[in-house]
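Need fresh eyes. Consider my entry:
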Amino acid sequence: MARYAGLIIFVAFVGFSAISAFGAMPPGQPNDLTADNAQAKAQNSVQVHTISLAVKSGAQRSAYLIQPAGAAFPPRNVPMVLWQQGGPGGEMVNSWSAVAESPFNLLPNFGISVLVLPLQMRPGWGEERWFDLANGRHFGRIDIDEAAQFVRKLIAKGYTSQQRVGISGCSYGGYFASQSVSRHPRLYAAANPACSLLDIPTEFASGYTAFIAFLEGKTPYQNLRKYRADSPIYQAARVVTPTLVFHGSQDFLPVGIAANFYAGISGRGTPARMVEFNGEGHGIREPKNALYQAQEQIAWFRHYLGQDR
């Protein structure tokens, strides 16, 4: 064992490189000790660029555009999906993932770019930006609207177009997608909310009382109108964006609310589809379900963002 003294062994991955074990003898560079995922890594064909733009407030926001490898940058009128992570709060995780709920390496390998845009209540941007989501009447609005402003600027630059931009996410990301297509009904050409928070008053009453009251600034007994305005379930009839809803039957966020959201959208004649995954909870875990979910997402965005037309 003496000859291994000082050797550091660790497991690491980045968003576009598969998990590996590394060894390093400081101050030397780490060496890859495994080759288990080399084939998977070789199959992944993506590239990443940063896009920085000012939003309406004058603040600068930076996004990461994940494209098919070899694609032109800046892009010209390409299909693109804005993705938001769960939360609110927590890091925007840069993970090796090819599942629908974190489609960094999924959609770009099928010709659809993914736009990752960290906004309010994400670490690394300072205290003011962290709390901005809960200040005043911001919740359900400020990050939703800044994302819409960012997307409109991308459209104005010709990077994408209103017929080729979609939105997706799971948990708070699903809320973000659902609230976006109700607040900005004609901006996105397709949406795919998953495991979504949809009913803020119900969430307040279901054990998340303090956090929801913090975000909203008041209880629903003090301002039920705002709680409902911030709840996509009450705005479903406004949605004109073709919407694919994913939800697990055992999700702590009630599947019945997701079904009602789907019914509200489809009932007004908007193209919509709901896939309920039997036995799944908050997020899809069973590999066969994750594969089916990925196929559904790819087909939805390919059709509604123009690839199949």
The chain has a mean pLDDT of 90. The longest helix spans residues 287-304. The two ends are 62 Å apart (CA to CA).
